[in-house]
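Appendix B. Extra example for self-study. Work through it before the problem class; the solution is given directly after the inputs so you can check yourself.
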Amino acid sequence: MALTPPERVWWKRLGRQERLWLGVSLVFIVALFSTMPLWHLLARQNTPHLAYRVSPERFSQLTNDFIARYQVGEEAGIPIVRPPEGDVYLLAMQFQWMPILELTKGKTYRLHVSSVDVNHGFSLQPVNMNFQIVPGYDYVLILTPSEAGEYTIVCNEYCGLAHHQMTGKILVKE
Amino acid sequence: MTSEALSLGRARDFVSRVCPVTGLRIHAAAERLVLTNAVTAVVFLLIGGVMALLVALTRWPTVGLLSSSPELFYRFLTAHGMNMLIYWIIFFEVAGLYFGSAIVLNARLVQPRLAWFAYGWMLGGATITNIMIFMGQGDVMFSSYVPLRAHPLFYLGTILFAVGALIAVGLFFANVIVAKAEGRYTNSVPLVTFGFITAAVIATFTLLGGVITFVPAFFWSLGLTSLDPEVYRLNFWSLGHASQQINLAAMVSIWYLLAFMTTGAKPLNERLSRFAFVLYILFINLGSVHHLLVDPGISIAFKLFNTSYAMYLAVLGSMIHAFSIPAGVEIAQRAKGYTRGVFEWLRKAPWREPGFSSLALSMVLFGFLGGTTGVALGHEQINMIWHNTLAVPGHFHATVVAGTTLAFMGLTYYLIPLIARRELVGKRLAALQPYVYAIGLLLLIAGMMAAGWLGVPRRVADITYSGAPVVATFPITAYIALAVFGMGALISVVGGAMYIGIAVASLLMGKKIPASQEPPVVTAVPTSPAPAEHKMPGTLVLVFSFLAFFILVMVVNMLQLAQVWPIR
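Solution. Structure tokens for the complete assembly:
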């Protein structure tokens, strides 16, 4: 009984059904584990792991230089930039994503994202890809937009009392 | 031998009574402490429950209760998280630790004064932090990620609480050791106590994690030191996630206890069940890294090892319990003569007994909804389509609420007659309560998961983004999912209120049970020693259906992941 001490000799041999379930479970967990390294080898959606330390001032400077170089327009006071393939910058701050990016389908970008104040959550909708954005860290998302359209970035890490107003945009052209 | 000699010399007598049902010797001071900690837990459950209602009615867009005063939403969400995840659960677990050591072992609780001192620290800490939250000095959420700043007392309250809880855990270990030295039990400890020892070991490093997280945060909030936000996140989750692993170990112990009390089930194989608990001690806390899978600055190797709890060995522990407990119930039921077909034993189980229905519903909801989704969202790559969406709270409401809280509720219906010695008031309501709560939670969890799957974020006051610079819209299906969630929340709040009502009414007005009379609810039937090879076809069908569902969840998630933009 669960409430009483076990009998003196409780190191009993496992029954047949227990051995069966234990064996099946062991095979299952090994298979489950191998899906992760295999996904790295065989699939194209893997967790980004490249990051640099960066000060908020330095990252703001990099983003401003980037906007000045490639700006093509403005929407609701937010600059729209159309960069070539390569390094792209996106700055998160209470309560805005800066700038609006215009990317081309099928090209690969190194999207640098960082925050100048608190933690933010980069949540690209409706594709539903989500990353944690931490101040002091330049997180490099090497991504390839696979479909044209208009995508929104919502903040999905609580960042202050106007958290539910923090949105941004990525446009993907053919 | 040595311990017996010791026990003769040192064993101290204590004021106690003998439980007429279990034959256990119950230390009066231990009884009072178990009761006080459990009642305090229920008070925090009440606060957290009121917050739950306000938060849920805000996130149900058609109602949108607080969407025009979002600061209140964020304040109440912070209070909901702290009161439910920390205060309700840990106060109840302290009650469980004293029960599992002093009472189950026939022993005394060493140093009752120190136990009251620990209680005072925990209550003081919880009160200070709650005051800060409700004064608007801590709108930082349960996780309080630095550099979001709360009042220094917010962090200090948490430190006080953690220190008090650490003392209680220390007392638990002292009880187990002293009970052995005084010869209160021989051989090994019972499985329930073994499970609580597991919970206490996990609690020790969890609470130490709390100290290393909140002491630096306290000094940082005073402006004395700097604190790296990513280091804070790493440290925080050694408390935030690990504290949920204390729940897991405590809940599984209570599952074994409820299975015994309601059907007379014995652990199928003590060796295997204990081995599964040891797997928890060794590996489960690696799961804290699940929160950091899409964080900058963390290597692939670190993520892979930790996210798989060392190749899913902790998951193996849960798979063992998922088999052992129903198998124990099946064998006990078959021994009573319910042997027809595959499932007569299950059909004829005491479904009107709240302890049994709580056990069954807690296991099913925890396993199918909580366990499988936990492994899916903790998968290194799949995490990208889950992180910080509403599906994450969907997962942990399945584990902590439908699993742990429901199991704790089931146990309460036995603690009231056994420890408080009062008859339950409203037994028919009590028989219904686990079903109401579970149905509400099923809808709530399904709604959260579906909305999160469609990208709806967690911790947000309003998903219409009205007034935002760029319009963000979610599909109509997300709004339907949130309506299902909202209705589920209402039903589960009713179920929670039923529980609190029954517990409070029974404690205040329940008929006193005289020491000689048997408390009426317990239906424990001692089983005869079972043969070496048992028949358990029903359990095999159940566990293999579970495995099939588990595989399905993983496959569906992988197919969805393969649809998103290529990224590395």
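Self-check: Residues 18 and 52 of chain A are 49 Å apart (CA to CA). If your reasoning did not lead you there, revisit section 3.
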